[in-house]
């Protein structure tokens, strides 16, 4: 998250094309394209760009700044949840989205889209809620009002810190954070301190709230053996929304499997199965058992012509039609 002092939509030197190029290149090399991560990238970018088509329905950034005082005073849940999707300038957006691209792909690929979506939804609420409680606690216990309780902040970085905690929770190796070697499990804590040193206008409380939200999420997930209620809700909504597509797909598949009386021309029996299919001995066309004459050449299904593929040959035919006669019958049949 970024404080108000970081500026409002100042120039970023054309960094958005770099973000688009990185996202396209990353998704192009993946055999499976994580849809939730792509949707989050698109949502954050569209909110920042505010295209004319959706501009009237997107609240202005002044209406959604995360401000604990205003949230408690007006019970403004819009500021609590929507502020995570707003960014003050182009570098702020691009830095967060590049981080989301890497973390989102790794987590969604390993967890699945439904569980990943439910986790992001939960972490947005938890990180924002923990930050709000931290600001209120500092005011109540320490009378620390100016720095945090009246602070204005926006950005997705609080959620990103929570995702970093989840991603590294089981890691046993080491990683580098801004050139400093630290245990991967504690990389989020090192980044919290270093980001605050290099970017003083960053929201320390928002980032801390994200880390604590990630730890709390992992504790709750570890202590709860059943299905995650949020995951179940997301899965139910997904199934409801995609039901028409699944219904149409099922109809198309059942229609393809249905036997329509059309056969195949060929001399081998490999891979052909099914009751009531007979092969014409004149042209080797496979016909439905409901037909009494060959669909290809018109020869009748007599004892000497055709066999059931499930029963083997009945009687071999010793009077195959001449090629000229076979061609003539085919022309008459389909002309």
Could you name the key traits of this structure?
335 residues, mainly alpha, two-stranded antiparallel sheet, 54% helix, elongated
Description:
The structure is a single chain. Helix content is 54%, strand content 5%. The chain has 335 residues and is mainly alpha-helical. The protein has a two-stranded antiparallel ribbon. α7 crosses α8 (157-168), α7 crosses α11 (229-241) and α9 packs antiparallel against α10. Residues 259-275 and 306-319 have low confidence and may be disordered.
Strand content range: 5-15%
Give the termini separation: 74 Å
Low-confidence stretches: 259-275, 306-319
Structural category is mainly alpha
The string of secondary-structure elements, in order, is EHHHHHHHEHEEHHHHEEH
Mean pLDDT, nearest integer? Answer: 80
Largest beta sheet, briefly?
Answer: 2 strands, antiparallel
- Total strand count, please? 6
The tally of helices reads: 13
Strands ordered across the widest β-sheet: 1-2
Instruction: Using the CA coordinates, give the radius of gyration.
Output: 33 Å
What best-fitting shape do the alpha-carbon axes yield?
A: elongated
Oligomer: single chain
The portion of residues assigned to helices is: 40-55%
Secondary structure layout plus pairing:
Layout: E1 2-3, H1 16-28, H2 35-49, H3 61-64, H4 68-74, H5 77-82, H6 90-111, H7 113-142, E2 153-154, H8 157-168, E3 174-177, E4 180-183, H9 187-198, H10 204-223, H11 229-241, H12 243-257, E5 277-279, E6 286-288, H13 323-334
Helix pairs in contact: 1-6, 2-6, 6-7, 6-8, 7-8, 7-10, 7-11, 8-10, 9-10
């Amino acid at each position: 998250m970024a404080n108000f002092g970081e500026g409002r939509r100042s120039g970023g030197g054309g960094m958005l094309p770099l973000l688009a190029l990185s996202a396209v290149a990353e998704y192009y090399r993946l055999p499976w394209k994580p849809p939730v991560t792509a949707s989050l990238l698109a949502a954050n970018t569209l909110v920042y760009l505010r295209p004319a088509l959706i501009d009237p329905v997107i609240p202005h950034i002044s209406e959604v700044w995360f401000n604990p005082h205003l949230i408690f005073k007006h019970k403004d849940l819009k500021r609590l949840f929507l502020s995570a999707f707003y960014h003050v300038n182009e570098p702020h957006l691009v830095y967060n989205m590049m981080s989301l691209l890497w973390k989102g792909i790794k987590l969604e690929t390993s967890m699945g889209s439904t569980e990943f979506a439910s986790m992001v939804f939960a972490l947005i609420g938890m990180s924002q809620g923990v930050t709000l409680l931290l600001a209120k606690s500092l005011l109540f216990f320490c009378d620390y009002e100016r720095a945090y309780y009246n602070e204005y902040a926006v950005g997705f970085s609080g959620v990103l810190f929570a995702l970093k905690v989840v991603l590294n929770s089981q890691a046993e190796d080491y990683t580098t954070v801004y050139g400093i070697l630290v245990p991967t499990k504690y990389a989020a804590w090192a980044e919290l301190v270093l980001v605050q040193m290099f970017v003083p206008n960053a929201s320390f409380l928002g980032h801390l709230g994200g880390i604590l939200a990630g730890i709390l999420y992992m504790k709750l997930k570890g202590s709860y053996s059943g299905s995650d209620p949020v995951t179940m809700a997301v899965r139910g909504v997904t199934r409801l929304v995609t039901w028409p597509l699944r219904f149409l797909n099922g109809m198309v598949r059942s229609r393809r499997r249905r036997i329509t009386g059309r056969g195949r021309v060929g001399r081998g029996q490999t891979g052909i199965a099914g009751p009531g299919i007979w092969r014409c001995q004149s042209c080797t066309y496979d016909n439905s058992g409901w037909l009494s004459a060959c669909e290809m050449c018109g020869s009748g299904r007599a004892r000497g012509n055709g066999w059931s593929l499930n029963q083997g040959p009945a009687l071999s035919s010793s009077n195959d039609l001449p090629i000229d006669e076979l061609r003539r019958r085919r022309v008459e049949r389909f002309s």
